[in-house]
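Below is how a single chain appears once it has passed through the pipeline. First comes the sequence as given, then the structure the pipeline wrote out for it. We keep one example in the README because the format questions we get most often are answered faster by looking than by reading.
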Amino acid sequence: MSCKAKGGGGDRASLEQSPAPMNAGSSASDEKAGKGGKDDKAPTTWKRSQIVPNSSRVMVGDRDDLTLRTMQTHVSVDGFRARVVIDYVYANEHDRQLEGSFQLRLPEGASPYYFAFGETKYEAKAAAPDLQLAANDGDDPKQIAQQRQNAWLAPKEARMVPRETAAIAYGQTVRRRVDPALVEWAGAGVFTARVYPLAPRKLHRIVVGYDLDLTPIGNDLEMKLDLPEQVPQSVVDISVAGAYTATSTPAAQPATVGTRKVFHYASDARSIAIRLSKPGSVLLVDLRGDSQTGEFFASRVMPELPSAPAATTDAATFLVDTSLSSNPDRFNIYLKLLRAVLEKNRDSLKVFNVMFFSVDAHWYKHEFIANTSENVDALIAFANTLALEGATDLGAALGEAARPTWNQNKRTSDMFLLSDGAATWGQSNLHALGKLIDGAGALYAYQTGLAGTDTSALVHLARDSGGAVFSVTGEAEIDKAATAHRARPWRLVGVSVTGGTDVLVAGNPTVLFPGQSVYVVGRGQIGATALLSLTVEQGGTKQVVKTKLGAPLPSPLAARTYGSIATAHLEELETATEAESRAYATHFRITGRTVSLLMLETEADYERFGIKPDADAYVVKATPAAALFAKALAATIGTLGDPKAAFLSMIDKLGRSPHVKLNVPGSYKTAIDGLPAAVFAVPATPLATKLRASTDLAPGLIEALATHKLEYDAVSAAALARRAQGSPADVLKALSSLV
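Resulting structure:
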């Protein structure tokens, strides 16, 4: 499976469990179990996006698709976390064997852990094949193939493999004209996988499994499952832990299966939502334990942090993403947020400017302008004339916004990033991106809940700048989110859990804002009276804020949630913790920087590349992530994001690879060591384009961009036609929409 996702540079861990953005629609006191806010009207999420998660296709060649006959989805909801297993059944109605490319769009924050492909016993002309699944079937990797064995002929399951080994095995296997499948998850968006062989006149089954967090909506949590429109037959079973009050949209009466409630849909429903009403703090525990690694827990809580107004600047710089990924749903949300921030903070925010960016970047004005209603109306009117196309050069945009050439007085301002955070062009290393805004003021960003958002990138940039990410999952949250940055943050000094060890907070936040939820994981047997203790500091005064973790809920998702957060911590330190990152990622099946899912043809192929089980469980048990992270961070903090350190690390890594023969002469190393770090930096400036308005685009291209149904020939022709009106940069911007 070759993953080609937004942010596909591969050097970000976009699957990391990021800290929950501040939920602008609730407060800590409101979120306590059994207590609602003043307004009992249930807030809603944004309307269904035109870019539908869980949409899939099997392409044969450049223009032909196989027919998707049916799909079945099984979802298990345990508190704040859900596990989704989807069976896609495609028909090869041709009389010859084919090779296809499976493409799938996953929801925001989805962490895939399973992929398998194989022929079924059914003929392509079979009416409605029985998928032989029950609503309470297990979703552990060991169970999935076993449950389908009567109808699935010799399925091939992808294995967790070190990323470099997977890439080499993939390349060498391709050269033998045998197509493997390689999963390299590099960010939110679409991944593609070669599926072969597609037997003639047969149905084929593709199974994908992933975990994700529920979306906070006010004081509730929501699991939203969007399904593609073109599926002729769809069956959905959503199993919810019985400890929670759950409602569904469309409304359905759940069946009771043991201690769980199961919502069943066998109709044409294409958007299903399960809402947990006021769950309060949620604690998942792994009561089954693992004799190799021990027991784990995972919790989502909202600590009650005292709120006080912060000292903010009177100037604001907005970075508004006008790339293809914003078209059209996100851009409309961005403009609503932009207007709300300016209008709701007019008493303190006196001047502003806006930079619009994709692979190019251009300022609305070459100066700060007054925050008046007339200026805001003019800005919104101008923004609505812009074409939404191209890839996203986040690094170039951040570099320009942090130090604009027109800001001769070097006036400081807060930065508001209105983007999905997924870099598809230029720099994508988060440490390097963070260095671009050093000393430029706090950066604030917003999580919309729409598919394709790289939350980990937004959180990293906000954390390193002293800012925050705020959750805006619906219209009702805009006004509160618009002023959320005015609360004074608390510096996080320490964290502990009653009876727990190896405690980690998702995203490794350095500050917390009032109203911000946090995800906390660790090891140990955690009881019903366990407390999360956060040592925080503000204005030189420390205090300990204690929060009850809630009633323990036994869940198989607890261990992998711990694994996601622990792996993200270790992968953030790159080569300093590379061996341990690989062990953690492999054991907990976390695809990302260090590990990929790889599917080869035979067992002999795996042996040929030395792909065999390692003692990963021993490493996980013997090396607690929290202590290792703290020690390695102290040793490497000065080199993270440094271009010279990154180059030397790459040379060292190649020299240690068993698949590469590299002999670096001592004289070369000496010469490299003597060079300044600036020599290794590659300055990035945004493209300078001329054609930015939607009226500059052909009508057919505007429609294709809005629906994200782009064809290479049409985009190429439109790009070349621009050269006469614009410049080579305009041509490149148009072509970058295909990235």
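The chain has a mean pLDDT of 85.

See the next section for the split statistics.
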